[in-house]
Specification:
Elements (H helix, E strand, L loop, with lengths): L3 H5 L2 H32 L2 H9 L1 H12 L2 H4 L2 H19 L6 H18 L2 H9 L5 H29 L2 H22 L11 H14 L4 H18 L2 H4 L4 H22 L2 H6 L1 H9 L11 H13 L4 H11 L5 H30 L4 H25 L16
Helix pairs in contact: 2-3, 2-6, 2-9, 2-10, 3-19, 4-7, 4-11, 4-19, 6-7, 6-10, 8-19, 9-14, 9-18, 12-18, 12-19, 12-20, 14-17, 16-17, 16-20, 19-20
Length: 402
Amino acid sequence: MTTYREIFGIREFRVLFVVRLFAMTGVVVSSLALGTVTYHETRSPFLTAVSLFGGPLVQLVTARYLLASSDLLRPRTAMVFMAGVAMLTAALQMLPDLSWWMRLLILAGGYVVLAATSGSVFALLSDIVPKDAYVLARATMNITVGGMQIIGNAVGALLLAVLSPTWLFGIAAMVSVTAGVTARIGLSDRPPRAEGKVVERSRQINRELLTSPGVRPLYLMMWVPNGLVVGCEALFIPYSSGHAGYLLAAGAGGMLLGDIVMGRFVPEILRDRLILPLRVLLAAPFLAFPLSLPVPVAATLVGVSSFGFAASLPLQERLVRHTRADVRGQAFGLTGTGLMMGQAIGALLAGGLAQLLGATRAVGWTMAMMAVLSLLVTAQLRKSLERTGATSPVGSGHPAVR
């Protein structure tokens, strides 16, 4: 079994890890600041959910036409460009007296760029590390997400107690610049993975991926159950306004632990068998949230739930087996787009339902309803997922997808 020492012995993997570390710091800090500003100014659970998770809806619309850029651009160029846009959007959020709709417009602009380049990082990862090390490398990259969510949300919550959100936007801008500079200096300048016209190729490969009987169930299992659970997380601020940062940090901690355990210690055959149990674990703890739990209990349940996000690792491992190299950037880009789309829809659904119900105590009941929906979808997808388990790697001479 591949070890951490082996993958960190690869120089470009170390660089990619550091780039991802800084990039995620910027995302987490900026998101916490934007959600806090929006809720304080509007007192609307719906608009707060939009500010936290609504941007991917823009990415969904534009990904149909731009997603092939993940394979058509040089990977290093794409990563530097993403960092530059992240810096610009964070800096614009620092402007004084912005209305909530202007803040959301700035947020949307950044997601247009993500629609074009979102698959570049993980397609590049599959080039840098050996095939048998991909799951551990992917899990290790996920550690940057979980780790920075823990640190960013916990430290951000402390900073917001004494500073304005403008300072957090400033921190996000600075770390985004650092991510771009590190990528430019530390990564080799690889050629594009494919050639063609962006819009034409984007539409063609998206259609092939989404209609493939081997790929479509993987996407649905990755996108829908966890998107509905993210709807629960989108209500943390109205559920526990003064302590939402700790709930977010607990969720990141559970996700981090799940990635470490699944990526390093669980063999491939067992990873596959754990997909459905992990999807159940993801939703079940939120069934207790109508009880108005104390913060320590709520944080513990959130951490247990977030361990279930580790199901994405064996699902993405299957995705690698079902796609060939020259579409892999777009395949992973579509994975990310769909994940964020599911999260955005889940957040908007949860936020709208909580606002419709009105009372503060309705937030906990909304979380429980979203968890029930997640469990129902998981049960519905079980049969189609079973048909994707056995497959051999797809080579360059085969069709793009199965």
